Amino acid sequence: MRGKSTKKRFHYGSVGLSFSLTGPSQNGTRREEARPLRNTRSQFPRVDDGRSRDLPRCDCPCETRCSSLRSDRLDGSAIRRAPRARRAFTLVEFLVVISITAILTALLMPSLSKARLAAMRLECANNLRQIGCGLISYTEDSNDRLPPSDWAMLSTPRLAESMCLTAPSGGKPDGLGRLLAVGGLGYLADHRLLYCPCHHGEHGVERYSGALSVSNFSQPIYSNFQYRGSVDPVSNKRIVDPISARWILAVDGFRTRADVNHLHGTNRLHGDCSTSWRADQDGLMLHHLPVTTDSNTDQNIFRLVWRFVDSDGMTR
Questions:
Q1: 275 and 269 in contact (C-beta within 8 Å)?
Q2: Domain residues of the chain, as ranges?
Q3: What does the pLDDT look like over 17-44, one tens digit per residue?
Q4: pTM of the entire predicted model
Q5: Integer Cα distance of 243 and 50 in angstroms
Q6: CB 156 within 8 A of CB 296
Q7: CA-based angle 184:187:269, to the nearest 5?
Q8: φ, ψ for residue 192 (rounded to 5)?
Q9: What share of the chain is helix, strand, coil (3-state, %, to 5)?
Q10: Would you state the pLDDT for residue 186?
């Protein structure tokens, strides 16, 4: 009908525009108007269901993720964001970590070394206590007499050999070796109690374990402790009432300098089975000891060392 116009609207959701076709104008032509839709956010609400976060934004003015892309997401054909590569250590960071570790280790090593030495010294004292218990049991069975040391009863006493567990003639135990089991029950539960964990010389327990396990005394066997014996090496008299704290019955070895177990002192076993520590910070005992010993070694050296060990308030 002439004079009336027919308006048809076409909506393009992807571009947010509305086109309307109107009827003929006054000059008889049709014109096409395009104007943006109002309130596009209300017409295309933003939907975020948690599955479209990885989708890229579209270029439309609605500033929302397109439904077409969301549908592609559901179909499994959407373009996914490339995963980020993990960042690795650089060479500089690695060297910094190594340097810090080395510095901390250097700071902790002295403390760890001191703690280790203190633990081994405590184990050494515990071994002496076990030896003291064996000596007490021996004296109870031997009319209050300590195990004799044949080395100290020679015409020329060899006080350095009181570390030896075998007699001068060989074939039988001597000194502290008499506490070991020979064909029966002994006074010590284990021969390893005669050795100090701090010993670094040539008379370690590994060297003699084979012979001691079968009670083979045919070859000289040395322990790591110096035994006083039944005769006092200082006064050259028999020890009376040995089960007393005033007597020191055994100490760490001092046969030679290599036999010293502790550099700054020695553990001492008293007659009442107690132990004490005799400090030697200046190394006087180590300084007087010989490098090697034989029958020509001056025995006064070892008497002097026994006096040093007996000092520090010890009286007879």
A1: yes
A2: 8-22+32-45+54-73, 117-310
A3: 444 444 554 555 555 554 554 554 445 4
A4: 0.66
A5: 88
A6: no
A7: 160
A8: -70, -15
A9: 35, 15, 50
A10: 87
